C-alpha cells in the first residue's frame, strides 16, 4: 500500500458563527465547534484512507479563545499519523479579522478515526508521510498520544504503554 503525505489529506472548512450556534455570552457553543472539527477531520481521514471512517476517540480539545458571534471560522484538518487501521487527525481552528483578513489561531483538537469496511470491521490503511517540521513533530508524538488514549479508555495496560512510559522516565 503506497504511503500518502499529510498534505494530501488536508481539509479546510470555512463558515460563519450564526445566532443559533452561540452560548449566552454570544460566543460559539463548544459542541458546535467540536462538530465542525469532527466533520473536517472525518473528511481528512477519508481522503487518506479512501475508506469509510468512524470517530474512535476525541483525544484532546483546547478551547483557548472564545469565538464571537459573526466570526468567520476556518477549521483545517490533516492526518498526522496512520497506524494499522487507525489515524490521528490534527484540527486547527482559526478566526479571521473582518477588515485585515489576518488569521488568529483560536482552538485545536486531536481526534482518532478508524477506517472500516461496509460491515464496520477495521481495515488496513496507507502509511502517512510527514514532510514539514510541524508534521514531523506531530507524527513523532502521535504514538504516545495513541497509547495514552488506549490507556484512558481501558484498552491497554500501563505496562503496554512503552513509548508513553519512556517519555516520562527519559533524562
Ligand atoms: C464520523 C463519525 O462521527 S462516526 C460516529 C461515531 N463513531 C462511531 O460510531 C464508532 C463506534 N465504534 C466502533 O465502531 C469501534 O469501536 C471502532 C471501529 C472504532 C474500533 O473497533 P474495535 O473492534 O475496538 O477495533 P480494534 O480494537 O481493532 O481497534 C481498531 C483501531 O482503533 C484503535 N482504537 C480503538 N479505540 C481507540 C481509542 N480510544 N483511542 C485511540 N485508538 C483507538 C486501535 O488501537 C486500533 O488501531 P490500529 O489498528 O491502528 O492499531
From TrEMBL:
<dbReference type="GO" id="GO:0009062">
    <property type="term" value="P:fatty acid catabolic process"/>
</dbReference>
<dbReference type="InterPro" id="IPR006683">
    <property type="entry name" value="Thioestr_dom"/>
</dbReference>
<dbReference type="Pfam" id="PF03061">
    <property type="entry name" value="4HBT"/>
</dbReference>
<dbReference type="InterPro" id="IPR040170">
    <property type="entry name" value="Cytosol_ACT"/>
</dbReference>
<comment type="similarity">
    <text>Belongs to the acyl coenzyme A hydrolase family.</text>
</comment>
<dbReference type="GO" id="GO:0006637">
    <property type="term" value="P:acyl-CoA metabolic process"/>
</dbReference>
<dbReference type="GO" id="GO:0005829">
    <property type="term" value="C:cytosol"/>
</dbReference>
<dbReference type="GO" id="GO:0052816">
    <property type="term" value="F:long-chain fatty acyl-CoA hydrolase activity"/>
</dbReference>
<keyword id="KW-0378">Hydrolase</keyword>
<feature type="domain" description="HotDog ACOT-type">
    <location>
        <begin position="7"/>
        <end position="119"/>
    </location>
</feature>
<dbReference type="InterPro" id="IPR029069">
    <property type="entry name" value="HotDog_dom_sf"/>
</dbReference>
<dbReference type="InterPro" id="IPR033120">
    <property type="entry name" value="HOTDOG_ACOT"/>
</dbReference>
<protein>
    <submittedName>
        <fullName>Acyl-CoA thioesterase</fullName>
    </submittedName>
</protein>
